[in-house]
Amino acid sequence: MTKQKILRAAVSGAALWLAGWGGAAGAAEVPASPHRPRTLDDALLEVNTTVPDFGGMYYDEKGQLVVRLVHASAAPAARLAIAKVFGQEKIPAEGLVTEPATRTFAQLKALHELLTPGVLSVAGAVATDVDEKSNRVAIGIESAEARSRVEKVLERLEVDRDAIDIVVVGRILPTNVQGGWLPITGGIQIETPGKYCTLGFAALQGSTLGFVSNSHCTQTQGGVEATPAYQAVYPNLAGTELTDPGYTSGGSCPAGRICRYSDSAFFRASVSVNPLVAYTPGPFNLSISSWLDVPGKMLYPSQGQTVYKTGRTSGTTSGTIQWACATVNSGGGPHTYFCNYIATNTTQNGAGGDSGSPVYFLSGNTATLTGLMWGAGSDPWNFAFAPLGSVQNELGVVPYCQGFVGC
After folding, report:
1. Dist. CA 303–CA 384, nearest whole Å
2. What angle do CA 302, 319, 346 make, to 5 degrees?
3. Contact call for residues 237 and 228 (beta carbons, < 8 A)
4. Does the first or last residue of the chain, that is N or C, have fewer Cβ atoms within 10 Å of its Cβ?
């Protein structure tokens, strides 16, 4: 079906870095598995294995790829290693720039893994992350009141306090519901029993065509109970929940919490599906101005990149990734997500009902998919999302892309 017809059819293992420890941390590639997908941090550790001076990388406000190095002389080796691990397309045409690093990425990742279970068990803790821009580990808290509780954990662990930043990021709550267009595409409203959410993106699970939205939009978060999804409201059935992995506890999951890599569920479609994403003229303008083609995907974006999302409440908004591959607590329950992302803006970029929004890179009239939004907060305004790589791995899906094929 053409985009014009769609518009007419619309109905509304590293060593621990303890205090005083200064040795070089080793790193090994961690293979993906159904329970342990390969993440951005795994790829960065692989670069660090090849280039011992590597301290991480991020994109600055000019779109330059900034590589942090303990010794600047490692720049040529870092460029080769990044291209090998991420692909040559990761490096901008103008090349990369370097900044000094005090710590290697492996050292920071080891510190992150050491402190995360204890820190995220504390009331008011929001997220932990290897912050490549600051070359430190960042801890996000809901408010200043949580700082003393986090500091006690750090004191008990006897970690190098100079390598850690504690910042107030506000609480991130699962977004709830509203909106709708036909036929079904990414960025439009769906209704599930008692809830309204946003359809994330069209997807293929083997030969089964369907779509992805949040697990918390189903009747039971984690686990399959065949939740129906309507477009835009009952009784217009759009699909039925088919895959929604359970949450796990123990191991690296913080005490008292249950964990996954993504807040996602796959629905088998009951109606026609198109590989498009709805686009609105701006924040809280809900009129669809165009339909974005989906030419492809990026499994794991990087810190400093700007991503967009389209949701049924706040429309199309954007944010710059400040927390990349962070371990994030949901403020609405006991759920914690490994290797998730937080994108921030000075203005509101998410609201109730945006749950399940597609997260993408915008270029002209195309949307390169990169994640699935599950939460939003303020101080500053932000939205949280799971990277596409984790969604694919947990659900066994690939996006349904331009040309009506999986990509």
Report:
1. 13
2. 135
3. yes
4. N
Cα 250 from Cα 216, distance rounded (Å): 21
pTM, full prediction: 0.81
Strand (E) positions, 280-314?
290-293, 306-311
CA distance 223 to 307: 30
Q: Which of 305, 323, 284 is nearest to 360 (CA)?
A: 305
Mean pLDDT of 109-116: 97
pLDDT at 288 over 90: no
8 A C-beta contact, residue 300 and residue 16? no
Q: At what angle do helices 75-86 and 40-50 cross, to 10 degrees?
A: 140
Pairing of strands 96-100, 125-131: unpaired
Identify the sign of the CA torsion 211, 217, 220, 226: negative
Longest dimension (CA), the chain: 66
Cα 251 to Cα 254: distance, rounded to the nearest angstrom:
8
Mean pLDDT in residue range 324-340:
96
CATH superfamily of this structure's domain 173-406: Trypsin-like serine proteases (2.40.10.10)
Residue 23 burial (CB count, 10 A) = 8
Q: Which structure tokens are listed for 134?
A: 């600051």
Contact 150, 122 (CB under 8 A): yes
Say which residues have a Cβ less than 8 Å from residue 22's Cβ, sequence separation at least 6. none
Q: What's CA 96's distance to the chain center, in Å? A: 24
Side-chain half-sphere CA neighbours of 91 within 13 A: 19
Q: For strand 208-213 and strand 164-168, is the pairing parallel, antiparallel, or unpaired?
A: unpaired
Tens-digit pLDDT profile for residues 226-272: 999 999 888 889 999 999 999 999 999 999 999 999 999 999 999 99
Which residues have a Cβ under 8 Å from the Cβ of 73 and sit 6 or more positions away? none
Distance, CA of 128 to CA of 325 (rounded, Å): 9
Looking at residue 338, the DSSP 8-state letter turns out to be E
CA nearest neighbour of 398 among 265, 206, 239: 206
- Token representation of residue 105: 């990425």
Task: With both helix axes pointing from N to C terminus, report the angle between 147-157 and 105-119 in degrees, rounded to the nearest 10.
Answer: 120
Is the sign of the CA dihedral 235, 239, 241, 244 positive or negative?
negative
Which amino acid, residue 184? I
For residue 88, the Cα-to-chain-centroid distance in whole angstroms is 23
